[in-house]
Specification:
Helix content is 19%, strand content 41%. By secondary structure, it is α+β, with helices and mostly antiparallel strands. A hairpin with an 8-residue loop joins strand 14 and strand 15 (341-342). The model has no long low-confidence stretch (mean pLDDT 95).
Length: 464
Amino acid sequence: MLTQELARKILSEALSTGGDFAELFCEDTKGTTISLNQEGVENASYTHSRGGGGRALCGARRSYAYTADLSEEALLATARSAAAAFPGKREQPATIPDFAPHSYDDGTPGFEGVNNAMRIDLLRRMYQAARQESEEIVQVQCRYLDNEQKVWVINSEGLWASTRRPYTRVIVNAVASANGETQTGYIGPGFGRGFDVYDTLNLEELGRTAAKQAVTMLHAIECPAGTFPVVIDGGFGGVIFHEACGHSLEATSVAKGNSEFAGCLGKQIASSCVTAIDDGTLDGEWGCLHGMDDEGVPAQRNVLIENGILKTYMYDRANARRVPHPLTGSSRRESYTYAPTSRMTCTFLAPGTDDPDEMIAGVKEGLYAKTLGGGSVNPLTGEFNFAVNEGYWIRDGKILTPVRGATLVGKGSDVLMKIDRVGPNMWMMQGVCGSESGGVPVNIGQPRIRVSSMTVGGKGDSIK
């Protein structure tokens, strides 16, 4: 690993053309991925990547270069490439303070001693449970992954920070078929922990859950279209806040004025029953930061919205120079091949006090979205659409029938104001969020909530 003398030399090189801040990010990551289907193990791969990235800032301007070679020569060349974006020359070498190395590695077990037979056993247990759930399940694919990332962040202000981040996840996709039609079910829990987490997980129940969803949707009717009250369940229901609102609170959008919530600090942007939090300190969670973000800033718990009032945005160092703002421990990147920017971690709506059953009982005609799927959003306008993977029609306060083909369409700021119920039990699910600094693991969550009015897309006629 780098010596302090070499690190100082590299940072000085990055500052040689007049930059006022330099940073070196180094990474060593190992990962395993295995997938299994009805024919057995479909594929298995092992990866090991190492590399480093050099960044220079000059006021609001920035540059970044990276290399897969961690030799002294390659890192110095990378620093020179970053410096080349600023065509000046410093008269005297930059002064770099003494470093005080600090590690956030808490010794959490990773994947040492885990062999592929142990990994494959997990997949077989989920696979068999899913196939046995129903004769209508015709295909099941299970996937396992683990990843252990070691990172070091060293900068020209004297920071020398490191951490180790173990991640693991299992995914089940089930396909049900009958009468020429097919539907799918999915579940994919992930953790910021090592292999020992599977001692606490009911793998068979995961397989059954994916299969049940596929079979339920196979026998569902087409969802009608219109404007209705919508009850959105917890867990992955939080994807609406994450996509339609969370991205608009990242400085990546806010600092450039490309957010519907730019300039709204201290203003009411949501119903008074809404409190939203982004928390990178939740140990063991898929979206946690393991002590520090990718600029070496300590992980933080950021209350974004409190009782409907916008309290803060999520900021990284570079964007905080565009719009002066304290750093929030929100800087993330997929790997050393990306420059960091502001990103979410574990983002969720906080628990409320409303009765989950009353939310449905109080709906005369509407949709219960039990599980949401993918969608799209425009951070500038907040306009979004999301698929409903598992939905049910509500009539006269009771669940009438499962419906399929439903989509939720709206605008983030409108939905936040129309949330009129928030339940007491919050839970989170996991995903990979893509943005300009690559794909990063995130948690999304909420309790069950009710939106008083939303546009529901569907192909069906009114349900008789």
